[in-house]
Amino acid sequence: MEQASYARRVFVLGMDGAGNFLQRLNRSKIAGLARQRGVVTLDAMTELPTISAECWGSMLHGVTPDKHGYHNERAGAERFPLDSAYPSFFRLARERYPEWTLASFTAWPPINYGLVEEGIGVHKHCAPDAELTDAACEYIGAAEDIRLFYLALDAPDALGHQSGYDTPQQHQAIAEAEERLLRIVDAIDRRGWLEDSLLLFVTDHGGGGEHRCNHGSDHPMDRTIFWAAAGPCVNPNADLEGLTFKNTAAVVAAALGLPIPESWDARVPEALFRG
Ligand SMILES: [Zn+2]
């Protein structure tokens, strides 16, 4: 039996290392868009440790980092993917729907080659942020249809390591990343897909907690993240209290009508969807 879905498509639009620093932008366009068409929180929590491979791994595989077992050292050393007992949301979608178009665009290659399973027909593209955005817009413009799409930009984290997290230089990089994500939203809109899509805006961790130019600790600056959902299926009064990054996996699955694996820790926030 088919489980009801809330959206025909899900786009997970991410940036690395932006924490909850959207609040420092003159006017965050992503937060604005989410307030208009959904919900946004600046008080979500990422997983521990607050490191990219661990946290993106939890977002994709729906479990805490100790369970999925992927970490940054492994990401640097091995090109080949995690053999996780916990399916990513891509594998979950593919097992049910062999015909669906699934795509993953990442500026940091270990996400695509370490965390998104190989051999399940996910269209993968890796490039620096500017080229990645161009390629993603082109892909969205030309695809017959897309059911699940993920993009992760890198510059906010790179700037944090270089100039410090939650600094004017990093805020500039976050504002630029917002512009890039909005170009993706425009590309989706040009296809007429906004009316039946769920858009999620995410980041994997913050920074500047224990070290000005680093992250990884459980300090609130490293751990606190923004999280936003937009689309006609989103209940604007949803309560995002207590949301953690891994819950994103459950939101993706529920939106597309995919049963949430019992093995996942991820849960859908209370009353996130309308109806
Ligand atoms: Zn980093």
Q: Mind sketching the topology for me?
A:
Blueprint: E1 9-15, H1 29-37, E2 38-45, H2 52-61, H3 65-68, H4 72-77, H5 89-96, E3 102-106, H6 109-115, E4 122-126, H7 129-142, E5 148-153, H8 155-163, H9 168-190, E6 197-203, H10 220-223, E7 224-230, H11 247-255
Parallel strand pairs: 1-5, 1-6, 3-4, 3-5
Antiparallel strand pairs: 2-7, 6-7
Helix pairs in contact: 7-9, 8-9
The structure holds zinc ion (ZN).
Organism: Paenibacillus dendritiformis C454
Protein name: Type I phosphodiesterase/nucleotide pyrophosphatase
InterPro entries: Alkaline_phosphatase_core_sf (IPR017850), Phosphodiest/P_Trfase (IPR002591)
Detailed description of the structure:
By secondary structure, the chain is of the alpha/beta class. It has one domain (9-256): Alkaline Phosphatase, subunit A (3-Layer(aba) Sandwich), CATH 3.40.720. Helices cover 37% and strands 16% of the residues. The chain has eleven helices and seven strands. It has helices at residues 29-37, 52-61, 65-68, 72-77, 89-96, 109-115, 129-142, 155-163, 168-190, 220-223, 247-255, and strands spanning 9-15, 38-45, 102-106, 122-126, 148-153, 197-203, 224-230. It has a seven-stranded mixed sheet, sandwiched between helices. Helix 6 (109-115) links the parallel strand 3 and strand 4. Helix 7 (129-142) runs parallel beside helix 9 (168-190) and helix 8 runs antiparallel to helix 9. The radius of gyration is 17 Å and the shape is globular. The structure holds zinc ion. Zinc ion is lined by residues 17, 52, 157, 161, 215.
